[in-house]
Structures are given as structure tokens and as C-alpha cells.
Amino acid sequence: MALRLYNTMSSQVEEFVPLRDREVRMYACGPTVYGYGHIGNFRTFIAVDMLQRFLRQSGYSVHYVMNITDVDDKIIRNAAQDGVSVQQYTAKFEKAFVEDAAMIGIEQPTLVRATEHITQMADFVARLVKKDIAYRTEDGSYYFRIASFPQYGKLSKKDFGGMLDGARVDLDEYDKDSARDFALWKAPKPGEAFWDTSIGPGRPGWHLECSVMSMEELGETFDLHAGGEDLVFPHHENEIAQSESLTGKTFARFWFHVRFLLVEGEKMSKSLGNFYTLRDLVLKGHKPSSIRYLLTSVPYRNQLNFTFDGLKQAAVSVERLRNFQQRLSTGTFPSGSNPAMQSLAKDAGDRMKTSLEDDLNTAQAQAAIFEMVRSANSALDASEIKQDDVPALLTALEKFDEIFAVLKDDDGAKMKAVFDWASSEGREKDISAELREAVQSGRFSEAEIEKKIAEMETARRGRNFKVSDALRSELTGAGIVIENTKDGVRWRRK
Ligand code: AMP
Ligand code: ZN
Fold it and tell me: How far is the CA of 324 from the centre of ligand 2 (A)?
């Protein structure tokens, strides 16, 4: 079997074979850095992260590039309002994006900034002008001549037969249904930030950024281009038009689009009060691992409805996986191997792989690992697991986590970082009692502490001092005082 992916261009699920042997070149449209990323953004970024993780796991080397849009209409407007430079304004949010992506378990792609490719963008426009595909207007802006690209609409399957030649749009915010000559390059308006270039003063349009940077990093034709479903038109349609009319070659071979996230059944919007940045959720006391788990629980093309109930369930699921891993790695087992356990682990691994190969069916992959955990937990209770079964089961779990990335118990430190950030920004009022408690009481809830102490005692009694000492120092590190009394172990918070 091989990986099969839905390709928006062909409207079909196709076998994914990269152009170069064992090497995948892929690009995702990244954030526009004028605010903190919301959970819809992160649904998309996590889906692409899982794709690249799975490609690596499948043996490919992956060159994954993401742009940072650090100049656009809104950025220029907001920076001017705040009286700071574009660079000062965006630096803060770019840093926040990098931190948030790491917090939610995204492996960092190669990041490229629009403002560092201005010269190349001006050159690109000049080349289009030379071919008469772009034209300059009186004010010094440049537009793409849509009539010069008859295939326009091939990605979004829109029919632009009757479009107006020469009708223009110069905003980054589009009327979704009309094809207009779009701005490649915008002349500066009075008081606006601009760059002096070979084609005159101004700044690049958003579509141009992605064409120039993706081809510079990955070549004129690369394997896969990704983004949220809203980008199909006009953004990706325009990227194709610019790139292909210049090179005469296919731009991206696969188009990977992630369905929009709903929150409590509705489209996320500030006016509905259901708009959440990642940091908002952590401020409410939710763990990053629960958020990631929930965002991965529905395949990327299906509707995912983010609810707070779902988030609670996700936390329980992650906890179950971590407990299972802990039970296996701290327990003592009789020597030998149990064929039933060996095949349980192998089947789970195989099912995970075939599920992910099936257009990244993450829900099925999760179901596969949970079935394994359920059966193996029963086997643990019945003392049916032998020493040689442990590595096989742990390996299946690790393979799962190479993609899903929720097992490492570092939520406490990440939540503390958000707590510190909110405090430094003077946003104490946004820190929930839950987050405050989680941070103040160290990393663990009471139930987690009890559990860890029980494990520590089991390990000590089994003379597994390495494990018992590790658990003890983990607890003391989190501010828990452990005392041995004649009635057993007592604990309290410092
Ligand atoms: P932006 O920062 O607005 O340019 O968006 C960054 C990425 O997030 C793009 O790929 C968008 O398509 C994607 N995106 C925005 N809103 C949502 C949403 N509600 N659900 C999923 N993806 C989204
Ligand atoms: Zn883009």
C-alpha cells in the first residue's frame, strides 16, 4: 500500500508519489502575523504537520516550507495605528506563532518571511510584465491579466468564461465569486510603508509572496501545496495563474486543503463569542495535549466541531494513553512472550499505517491504538503480558506518537509559559482559576499525584529503584513533599 491523498486539483483521491525518489517538497501557506493564532488556524497547521510526520515515518525526506506573511493591508494599517514599524509590529506575533506551534506539537517547517523576498518579488513582476501577463497602472501598481491565463479557475472549478477583462481588485480581502485582475504589487498610499524596488516603490500582494517563495525554496514544480479550504479561491487559484503562466510548468502537483473548523456547531467568529486563540484555551486551564488530540481526532477533510465537552474527552483519552505507557514501562513482567500480545501490537501498527495511508484517516488510527490499549490493559490486569511483549506494545505506541505527538507529559511547563506571558502582558484577569491552580500546585492534579505515588511504591517494592527514584524526583520537582510514615507514604504540597 502507498499513501493516497485527496487532490483538490483532480477532485479525487490519488496515490501520492513525489517527483523525486524518496523526497517530498511541500509548502503550506502560513500565518499572517497580525494577531495570535486561533484554533482554526491550528487545525490546518496540525493537519499539515501530521502529513509531513507521516511522510517521514514512511521513509521520505521532507522539505517542508511555510511562509510568514509579515506584510499586508491589515498589518500596515495596524502598525500605522500603533505608530510602530511593520517589522516591530509583526516580530511580536511571529514569535508568538513559533511558540504556539511548538506548544501544540508542530515540528517547525522552514519558515520564510515575505519581507525578506521583496527583491525577488519585484523581479517576478518584471518578468510577468515582459511577457505581457502583468501590466502597470497609473498609480504604479501592477496587476495580473487574468484573460492571459485561460485555465484560470481550474483549481476552484469556477467558470470564469464571462469575466470582465481588465476589471480589477486591489484588496487582500476578496469578493469570493468574481474573477478580477488581481494586484501583484501595490503602489504605496500616502503614509504607508513601502519598499523601493526595480519596478518602483510599493509592496507585494499576498498571492505573489507565496508563488515567489515556494518556487525559490522548492523549485518551479513541487509535490504538494497546502492550506485551509478558504484559500482555494482566490489565493491558490492566483498562485497557480502567476506561477504557471511564467514557467509554463505545473506549479504544485497535489493540493491539500483542510476543512474549516467549527466551534460549538458554528463558524468561529468574534461576534458570536466562539473565537478562541490557542492561548485563550490554555488560559482557561486546558492542556495543549488535549487541544492537539481533539484537533487530530477528525480526518482533515471532515467537519470537526470543536466543543468543550470534546476537549474534556480528549484530555481523558490522552491520559489513558499516558497511563498505559507508564504501566508498561514501570511494571515488572515474567520472562517470555505471549503470541496474542505480539499480534495485538503488530495488528495495531498495521492498522494505524493503513488508516493514515487512506487519505490520513486519523480517527481510524486513533481507534486502532485505543483497541490495542483496551485489550492490553485487560491482559495487564490478568497478568498475561510477558517481558518480550512490552517492547512490541511500546513500539506501537511510539509509532502512533510520532504522528500524534501527545504522550510527552510536558503540559505543565507549557501552561506555565502561557501563565507567565499573560502576567507579563498585564492580562491577569484572563487567567482562569483552573490555570492558576494547575500552575501553583505544580504539574499534577491530586489524582495524578496519588497515582504516581502508588507507582513509585510498586516500583520500590519490586526493587526497581531506578523507576521509583525517577518518580520521586518528578514529584518533588513539582513541589510535592513526600514523607514516609509508619502508615505508608504521605504527601503534601509545599
Ligand atoms: P491566516 O493567518 O488567516 O492567513 O490563516 C492561516 C491558515 O489558517 C490558512 O491556511 C487558513 O486557511 C487557515 N484557517 C483560517 N481559519 C480557519 C478555520 N476556521 N479552520 C481551519 N483553518 C483555518
Ligand atoms: Zn499562500
Answer: 41
